[in-house]
Each structure stands twice: as structure tokens, then as C-alpha cells.
């Protein structure tokens, strides 16, 4: 059990670091060279940076992009708001993650010329990179702040809410404003980037995936372990093998995909021979607690 927790802590650290790097690369390398705009708070930071540099003519500091600094600043009030909803642990890891995202957005250099010349391909590749990166951070039980921070708060209070959805909504509002500032092609390609990002976030963020587990075991104590260690409800009944006529406990529970390794650890300790049927994307009607931290 201790080894599993240590492995999960290590995976959390790695997911948070590399997720933020991939996200920043998706933005800085994918769309910034072709002057497209991200959705959510990153897009807001891009617009503010454009206003500072092109309208206020604030000089650019060599080697530092203002977007990361602005991104961090506009996240502060929403971070304080989320503290009451998500709790201290989530907000602490989120603060670290926001700092990482801001630093990488500021430090990762933006190429002077696009690596890929095709605008559509750049928006898709950039969206995949930023979406996968943001999803990895959320999968680690943290958040990069901004629309993700708002999204997980809503998902916590409304279990059927998808985190990527809030990013698409905010992006739509931003691009409506951009429509009056830039040409239609820039807005369309930027919206493609935002939609791809939102889809990838929901695919990678496995807390959104509800998993139904049906367990057949002859050992006692499995249901109790699931309830005590995972704090998940279990329905159980007694069955009989058609061939052996031996009695068996039949257990059914619904967990998030993120909790599957813990369920496997419980079964390996109590009954390594248990027969388990796992079905992803289970539809749940009723009370199901969506979790974002261990």
C-alpha cells in the first residue's frame, strides 16, 4: 500500500511537470508563431500582452515573455475563490502548477518562423499539445488555474459537468471579441485550436471516466476494503458457479478511472485470483462523488 502511494506521488509530480511543459510548448511553439490566440485565460493573457506591447508600447524584456506573468496575475482571484470549494491540498498543488505554467510560458522561446507552415495543421497540433498537457495536470489532481480551475470547481459540485466544456465556453466569448479586432481566418483557426484543446483535455483527464467494476471472489473482506480504503459504495450478492457449484461473492462498484490502480491493489492483497469485469464510460444516474485528489 505504501509503495503504491509513493508511486502515485511520483506520477503526480511527473505529470504536473511534463504536463505544464507540453502545454506551454503547444501554445508558444504551436500557435504563437502564427499569431493565433488560445482560449481561456491564456487567450486573455495573450490579448493583454498584445495591448501592452502594441498599444501601450511597453518595451519587451529580452528572454522573458509577459504572457506568463500576466497569466499568473489573473489567476490569483480565482485561486482564492476555489480554495473554499476544492480544499487546501488541491489549491496548494494548483498554486505550484500555476507557477510552473507561468514560468514555462515565459521562458520557452517562441520561434520567429512557424515550424509548420500550414495554419490549420499548426492549430490542430498546438491544440493537441496544450490539451494533452492540461489534461495531464488535471489527471495529477492539480490544475493550471484559469478555465481549468473554474471547470473542476463546477465538476466537483455538478458530477456530470466536463472540465473541457468551460474552456470552450470562455473561448467562444474571447473569439467573439477577437472577431472585431482581427480577420475572420485568425478567429476561425484560433477556435479550432480551442476546440481541439477542450476535446483532448476531456480524453486525458480520466477523472471524467466512470468505471464499473464487477468482482467475483471467494474471499471475504473485499467489499469492506473498497468501502474503507476507497470510500466507495459496494453492492453485493451471493452467486454460484454453474460448473463447479461453488459459492462466490459478487460485488459491483463504480469508481473513476483514476482509482482503478487502487482497486487492483486491494484485490491483489485479498484475492489475487478474483475474476473482475471492468467497463469504462459507465453512465451513472444518482449520487456519484467526483474526486480530483487522493
User: Biggest sheet, in brief?
Assistant: 4 strands, antiparallel
The SS-based structural class is alpha+beta
Spans of at least 5 consecutive residues whose pLDDT stays below 50 are: none
Instruction: Please give the order of strands in the largest beta sheet.
Output: 2-3-1-4
Give the helices and strands as they follow along the chain: HHHHHHHHEHEEHE
**Radius of gyration of CA atoms, rounded to a whole number:** 22 Å
Span between N and C termini?
13 Å
What general form does the structure show?
Answer: elongated
Assembly status? single chain
Short description:
The chain has 294 residues and is of the alpha+beta class.
Topology diagram in text:
Layout (H helix, E strand, L loop, with lengths): L1 H30 L8 H16 L10 H21 L1 H20 L11 H21 L6 H12 L5 H16 L5 H21 L5 E8 L4 H9 L4 E6 L6 E10 L3 H11 L4 E5 L15
Antiparallel strand pairs: 1-3, 1-4, 2-3
Helix pairs in contact: 1-4, 1-5, 2-3, 2-7, 3-4, 3-6, 5-8, 6-7, 7-8, 9-10
For the structure shown, list the relevant keywords.
294 residues; alpha+beta; 60% helix; 10% strand
Description:
By secondary structure, the protein is α+β, with helices and mostly antiparallel strands. It is 60% helix and 10% strand. It is built from 10 helices and 4 strands, in the order ααααααααβαββαβ. It has a 4-stranded antiparallel β-sheet, with no helix packed on it. The longest helix has 30 residues. The model has no long low-confidence stretch (mean pLDDT 79).
